[in-house]
Design brief:
With 285 residues, the chain is an alpha/beta fold. The strands form 2 sheets. Strands 5-4-3-2-1-12 form a 6-stranded mixed beta sheet. Strands 6-7-8-9-10-11 form a 6-stranded mixed beta sheet, with helices on one face.
């Protein structure tokens, strides 16, 4: 069994007004439509906040740029889903009753909204300043395409192992979609190591899709087992790229059969050390 994915490492234009946001969505929609016209896939995956630029300048204008679940982003990608009978995973700044969230939503082949995920771990380091503008999410999201079970995470979520492990172990996820915006700040180099680790430790495919551009690029698909004979698939260092990827069920089964550490895991016991109560270490409170 196979799953075909169009991963879109795309340039995202400056967008600090609703008009510019909507123009950006039209341009992106046309690029994806052109790519699907050349080679159809069952699923399309786009980067984090793909409707707007990633900057304090745009975040300062969330009153104008943020949108509801059924807003301009939904309408743009709904039209792609309906026209090409495919799933589309896209990200945008979402307006809620208690603030703004970084959201990833999925539309289905019939044009309906399948569901959404709100980023849990907001980045506040390097080129990121998300906690100044967004609220963290508290939901997980899993959906199925062609018999494969997929889960979603966003950018800094990958640095926390709990989400990926919960998706794989508790919800049977075989493919993790990681919508991201990784700028070439001091955190850029570590990102790929996290991606490979999350794929290996959970024996899943992990697709991490970044923006294109001078300060971005180098998206990655990690298979469920990585070695010299089964390396990750890399995208261009900077340029825009629409890459068709194929997920193989046999690769997941082979990794889990040959390397049984996921099956052999044991529950961590709450063991109290002498002189230390079971409580959160004050360093991290």
């Amino acid at each position: 069994m196979r799953l075909s994915i169009l991963a879109c490492q795309v340039n995202i234009a400056n967008s600090r007004t609703a008009v510019e946001r909507d123009q950006n969505l039209v341009a992106l929609r046309d690029k994806v439509a052109n790519a699907l016209s050349r080679e159809w896939t069952e699923l399309v995956v786009l980067p984090e906040l793909c409707s707007i630029e990633y900057s304090r300048c745009s975040f300062d204008r969330l009153d104008d740029l943020a949108e509801p679940l059924n807003g301009p982003s939904f309408r743009a990608w709904q039209s792609i889903s309906s026209e090409f009978h495919t799933y589309v995973a896209y990200s945008f700044p979402r307006r809620t009753t208690d603030g703004y969230r970084i959201t990833l939503a999925v539309t289905g082949p019939d044009g309906h909204l399948i569901g959404h995920y709100d980023k849990i771990y907001l980045a506040q380091f390097g080129a990121s300043a998300e906690k100044d503008f967004f609220q963290p999410g508290n939901n997980l999201f899993v959906f199925e395409v062609n018999g494969f079970r997929l889960g979603t995470i966003i950018c800094a979520d990958i640095r926390m192992p709990e989400i990926a492990r919960t998706l794989a172990v508790n919800h049977g996820v075989e493919v993790i979609l990681h919508s991201s915006t990784y700028s070439r700040d001091p955190t850029f180099y570590s990102w790929h190591h996290f991606a490979v680790t999350r794929a290996l430790e959970n024996q899943v495919y992990l697709l991490s899709v970044n923006r294109a551009g001078e300060d971005y690029g180098k998206s990655i698909l990690c298979p469920p087992w990585v070695d010299e004979n089964s390396p990750p698939i890399w995208f261009d260092e900077h340029d825009e790229q629409f890459k068709k990827l194929v997920i193989e069920r046999t690769e997941i089964e082979h990794a889990r059969k040959c390397y049984s550490f996921l099956k052999d895991r044991q529950e961590i016991l709450d063991v109290q050390l002498p002189g230390f109560p079971l409580s959160t270490h004050p360093q991290f409170v």
